[in-house]
């Protein structure tokens, strides 16, 4: 269910490459599209028709994916292009993927930031082929194909070729070098060779006129002979694609091992920024995997924007902000702040060029995609980074875009009426007004800040005071219970509206199923009646989707951090594992994995509020490399426990914080200012097997607090 793949990636790199079968959701694997229950098999085996680039990681139901520039090693005629062969002996490491095709060809791929290097070992054959298909894109499911609008390919010399395809309004260029001495080099169209042809141009392509096209290298192969394919990519033309290739691979020389070693080193550096001690082997494996998945997307391509000519970062695969703004963006801000800054700078440029901050942004024109999911989410990340006083962003200019974006799409009705449907957008917009007000006040625009803060109080219009829940409305991938407990900027007011701590806690207890019978999980292809009955339970979906990610920490605001500890421990123990199905839902481009990282550390970022909530960690000791040095979370009394079925005969009871110190001083509150983490320090948590009074009195700050500055 994680919707991830084992392909070769580089941290936040432009390229990710893996075997391609056309299956949902990334192009790798054997499953058909399914968003409810257990997915059906699309194929009866692991198979591939070649190896593609720009594969997604962990996304849900966005329908089309990239998978551009398919490379296929063959010992069959060109007519068989598109046929799939069984994958055998797959092997994956960070930055490296390998597999055998049943045709006897050994296939290996590594990637850099803007390049991919393939190495194919052929069997003895009189007519081997290496085919590069520039027409392939998307998935082999209904409505899943991406058709190029225009294309151009040309041979530029022996072993060299280049081409550009325009997909969904964006030109993707590739420059290829193929080490195949003695082999013929030709272009092909509609699976027919073009002897002597050096260039193909397609000015207008439609679904009805598309025929496959690309370049081919063909010749006799000795047993064990290797062919290396080096591909440089760019969104700014073939010349830049060639420069990217030369920068990372050198000129006309073998580069596989060099690129693999460099990417492996980058992964060691990034993964080394979070270290844990203690825990079982399985927990450490899941933690390392979660951190890895958290650092694949978004893709950050320096100086590659196809939409503006200036230098600077261009971030795509922001799929989507509603998945990553709560957990992944705060993680990047903590351990790779330069990359987080690049993402935000890119989003500001998207807003400047296309008119609004994107909720999701792909390698495609159009920043308004996914707007039904949520509104104005970039404001939270911008507010957090501004509070940390990080350089590199023109904040006066950023504030202009933040304010303007609040009045677009659903924001127009919110501005006029203080409420908008779908009702969840009322919460989004009220929260974004609060975040923007913090930036405006820090920039001394107090009149603007006061107006924004006043409008931010309209969060209350979204709720029915008779029930303490959201008003009836349409809900995107959830229901009113899923959305009713999100962490607002005025949780104190939210709890008072629900009837106080006891009533609010009782509502949360019902949502999480305390005292209720276990829920039967849907199986393969559940019918609508079964799914409707499940949704009608109004229960926690178990991290299966974004609305529920933050809800366990709502207990903190009602003085019940012990309940948070129980829910989080249950999720870490039973919902994640090391095998297939080891994630409880699609990974959301790293959003779900980032949740796991934070929860295992005993921290949870409250996006947009410059705040971390504290709970019992899953490891005896952990450390984060942050801009101020090192932030350490250490414990006393920690008890290791297994995860999943491995621990079914063991006591799964959680641990609770009994007391805490921050840099040697007592910490009586359940929260930290984000600066306490980002500047480095030492948090010590004394744990025990029973709930304590720690954290019951001092609550995390809220807008309506009489003393909002009190923290500890």
From TrEMBL:
Entry-linked Gene3D superfamilies: 2.70.98.10, alpha-1,2-mannosidase (1.20.1050.60), alpha-1,2-mannosidases domains (1.20.1610.10), GH92 mannosidase domain (3.30.2080.10)
InterPro entries per the UniProt record, alphabetical: 6-hairpin_glycosidase_sf, GH-type_carb-bd, GH92_N, Glyco_hydro_92, PNGase
Region feature (Disordered): 688-712
Xref: SUPFAM superfamilies: Six-hairpin glycosidases (SSF48208)
GO terms assigned for molecular function: hydrolase activity
Residue stretches making up the Glycosyl hydrolase family domain: 240-688
Pfam families (UniProt xref): Glyco_hydro_92 (PF07971), Glyco_hydro_92N (PF17678)
UniProt KW keywords: Hydrolase
Ranges of residues in domain Glycosyl hydrolase family 92 N-terminal: 2-234
Protein's UniProt name: Glycoside hydrolase family 92 protein
């Amino acid at each position: 269910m994680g919707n991830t793949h084992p392909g070769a990636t580089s941290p936040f790199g432009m390229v990710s490459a893996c075997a391609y079968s056309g299956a949902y959701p990334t192009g790798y694997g054997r499953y058909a599209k399914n968003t409810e229950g257990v997915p059906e098999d699309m194929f009866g085996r692991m198979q591939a028709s070649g190896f593609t680039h720009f594969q997604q990681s962990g996304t849900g139901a966005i329908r089309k994916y990239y998978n551009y520039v398919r490379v296929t090693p063959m010992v069959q005629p060109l007519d068989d292009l598109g046929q799939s062969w069984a994958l055998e002996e797959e092997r994956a490491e960070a930055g490296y993927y390998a597999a055998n095709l049943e045709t006897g060809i050994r296939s290996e791929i590594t990637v850099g930031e803007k390049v991919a290097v393939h190495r194919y070992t052929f069997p003895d054959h009189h007519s081997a082929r290496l085919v590069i298909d520039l027409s392939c894109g998307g998935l082999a499911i209904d409505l899943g194909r991406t058709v190029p609008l225009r294309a151009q390919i040309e041979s530029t010399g022996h072993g060299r070729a280049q081409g550009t395809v325009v997909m969904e309004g964006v030109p993707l260029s590739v420059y290829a070098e193929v080490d195949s001495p003695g082999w013929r080099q030709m272009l092909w169209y509609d699976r027919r060779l073009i002897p002597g042809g050096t260039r193909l141009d397609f000015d207008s392509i439609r679904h009805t006129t598309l025929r496959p096209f690309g370049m081919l290298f063909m010749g006799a192969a000795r047993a064990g002979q290797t062919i290396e394919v080096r591909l440089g990519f760019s969104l700014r033309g073939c010349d830049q694609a060639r420069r990217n290739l030369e920068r990372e691979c050198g000129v006309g020389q073998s580069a596989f091992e060099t690129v693999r070693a460099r990417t492996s080193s980058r992964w060691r550096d990034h993964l080394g920024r979070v270290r844990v001690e203690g825990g079982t082997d399985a927990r450490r494996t899941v933690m390392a995997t979660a951190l890895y998945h958290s650092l694949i997307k978004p893709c950050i391509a320096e100086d590659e924007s196809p939409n503006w000519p200036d230098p600077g970062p261009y971030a795509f695969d922001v799929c989507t902000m509603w998945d990553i703004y709560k957990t992944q963006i705060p993680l990047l801000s903590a351990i790779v702040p330069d990359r987080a800054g690049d993402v935000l700078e890119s989003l500001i440029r998207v807003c400047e060029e296309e008119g609004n901050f994107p909720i999701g942004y792909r390698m495609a024109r159009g920043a308004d995609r996914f707007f039904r999911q949520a509104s104005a989410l970039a404001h939270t990340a911008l507010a957090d980074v501004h509070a940390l006083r990080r350089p590199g962003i023109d904040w006066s200019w950023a504030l202009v875009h933040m304010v303007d974006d609040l009045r677009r799409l659903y924001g127009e009705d919110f501005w006029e009426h203080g409420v908008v449907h779908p009702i969840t957008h009322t919460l989004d917009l009220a929260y974004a007004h609060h975040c923007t007000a913090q930036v405006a006040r820090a920039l001394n625009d107090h009149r603007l800040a006061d107006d924004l803060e006043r409008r931010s109080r309209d969060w209350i219009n979204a709720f029915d005071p008779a029930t303490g829940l959201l008003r009836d409305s349409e809900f995107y991938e959830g229901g009113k219970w899923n959305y009713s407990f999100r962490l607002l900027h005025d949780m104190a007011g939210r709890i008072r509206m629900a009837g106080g701590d006891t009533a609010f806690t009782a509502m949360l207890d019902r949502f999480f199923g305390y005292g209720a019978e276990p829920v039967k999980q849907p199986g393969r292809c559940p019918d609508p009646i079964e799914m409707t009955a499940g949704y009608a339970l109004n229960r926690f979906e178990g991290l299966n989707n974004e609305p529920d990610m933050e809800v366990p920490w709502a207990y903190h605001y009602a003085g019940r951090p012990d309940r948070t500890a129980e829910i989080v421990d249950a999720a870490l123990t039973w919902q994640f594992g090391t095998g297939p199905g080891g994630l409880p839902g699609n990974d959301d481009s790293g959003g779900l994995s980032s949740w796991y990282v934070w929860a295992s550390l005993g921290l949870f970022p409250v996006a947009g509020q410059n705040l971390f909530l504290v709970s019992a960690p899953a490891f005896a000791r952990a450390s984060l490399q942050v801009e101020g040095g090192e932030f350490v979370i250490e414990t006393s009394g920690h008890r290791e426990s297994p995860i999943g079925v491995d621990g079914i005969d063991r006591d799964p009871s959680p641990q609770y914080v009994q007391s805490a110190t921050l840099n040697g001083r007592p910490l009586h509150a359940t929260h930290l200012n984000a600066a306490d983490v980002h500047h480095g320090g030492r948090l010590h948590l004394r744990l025990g097997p029973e709930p304590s009074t720690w954290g019951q009195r001092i609550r995390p700050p809220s807008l309506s607090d009489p003393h909002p500055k009190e923290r500890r």
